[in-house]
Amino acid sequence: MNTISPMAYVHPDAKLGEGVIIDPFVSVAGNVEIGDGTHVHSHATIMDGARIGKNCNIYPNAVISCIPQDLKFVGEETTAVIGDNTSVRECATVNRGTKSRGTTIVGSDCLLMAYSHIAHDCVLNNHIIIGNATQIAGEVEVDDWAIISGGTLIHQFTKIGAHVMIQGGSKINKDIPPYVTAGRDPIAYCGINSVGLKRRGYSNEEIRDIQDIYRYLYLSGMNVSSAVDRIMEEVKESKFRDQIVSFVKGSQRGILKGYTD
């Protein structure tokens, strides 16, 4: 059985799973789907195009699937998808997509902290933490297990790799390759996210292999293309080598610089 407050508005066309809780003063539009066990807290707004998974928490004053803040948007039917077990904290916003991609995606087991913003056509994968007041512009891609600390500003079209840890207050206008920590101003490579990798079960040998690859990219004095060539010649084949090289080669904006005094 669902629990829907009589002081909430739920459009009759909205599709609710089992065990959904809708608190007072919530507004749920018609073109909406909400999965089993999800709790929409007081004063949250769920707008047309929202597709919310199972066992999510949408906290007070959060807004899911409002139209994009993009002047090219002309009313096309698009969506904002939230995966299972994801929490969207107070006053956070997730805009729906545009005709560019048609959807904005936030994966499963994510945490969007208070006042964060996910703009149109972004793709956030799984197990991601977005810190308080972080602002993510349109068509940004964030891979699994990334942690983006509070107050970070992310330029449109940027890509952020898996298992990245980003310092609070950062301004990101370059791609951040996987497994690294990034901080300072301007944003720079600060080493490997070894603490996060250990917590997720990576062995010391695997972490050393990742460190060896980044020594070529950031400590060898070579430019990026030469470093990639050397990595392919001298580093043994592994999923880490191929993942990092593929990310670097595929970067359209260029990857972040190394730190210099």
Give your account of this protein's structure:
There is one protein chain. This protein has 261 residues and is α/β, with parallel strands linked by helices. 17% of the residues lie in helices and 27% in strands. A 12-stranded mixed β-sheet has the order 1-4-7-10-13-16-19-22-25-27-28-29. Helix 3 runs antiparallel to helix 4. The longest helix has 15 residues. The model has no long low-confidence stretch (mean pLDDT 97).
Overall pLDDT level: 97
Distance between the termini: 61 Å
Please give the radius of gyration in angstroms: 20 Å
Number of strands: 29
Low-confidence stretches: none
Shape: elongated
If helices are DSSP runs of H or I spanning 4 or more residues, what is the number of helices?
Answer: 4
Write the layout of secondary structure elements.
Blueprint: E1 3-4, E2 9-10, E3 15-16, E4 21-22, E5 27-28, E6 33-34, E7 39-40, E8 45-46, E9 50-52, E10 57-58, E11 63-66, E12 79-82, E13 87-88, E14 93-95, E15 103-106, E16 111-112, E17 117-118, E18 123-124, E19 129-130, E20 135-136, E21 141-142, E22 147-148, E23 153-154, E24 159-160, E25 165-166, E26 171-172, E27 180-183, E28 188-192, H1 194-199, H2 204-218, H3 224-234, H4 239-250, E29 257-258
Parallel strand pairs: 1-4, 2-5, 3-6, 4-7, 5-8, 6-9, 7-10, 8-11, 9-12, 10-13, 11-14, 12-15, 13-16, 14-17, 15-18, 16-19, 17-20, 18-21, 19-22, 20-23, 21-24, 22-25, 23-26, 25-27, 28-29
Antiparallel strand pairs: 27-28
